[in-house]
Amino acid sequence: MPADALQSGCKDIARQLFENIPNIDVIMGGGRKYMCPKNMPDVEYPTQSKHNGTRKDGRNLVEEWTNKRKNERAHYVWNKKQLLSLNPNNVDYLLGLFEPAEMSYELERNTETDPSLTEMVDVAINILKKNPNGFYLLVE
């Protein structure tokens, strides 16, 4: 973000996601590097510096989310195997970040490591449907 935007109090999209709407039950997509401190190696691509964290404020938003929810049934996952191994009955909060930047198109997706949109939606619905008051699910 431009320096003048930061000085005016603007928050980047990653901060907005966690701070402006703090009670989202399920978040999935790409964007790990925008959640982690600058130069922090990516969990999936630790030797590829282009995927390192980019946050200039030094914050690790994944760690903050995990710490905030440490006494709740919350899980952070970053690959397809972890996501599909979850038992939705034992999960109330889920943060799934499957790529350092944007998710790949379906035809270009690594089917071994990255979940499909259908798989992500299925897990989300199975977690959210436990709420007796219903739920709102936005899939983009």
Automatic annotation (TrEMBL):
EC number: 3.1.3.1
Protein name: alkaline phosphatase
SMART domains tied to this protein: alkPPc
Main location: membrane
PANTHER family: ALKALINE PHOSPHATASE
Annotated family: Belongs to the alkaline phosphatase family.
Compartment(s) of residence: Cell membrane
A Pfam family that the UniProt record links to this protein: Alk_phosphatase
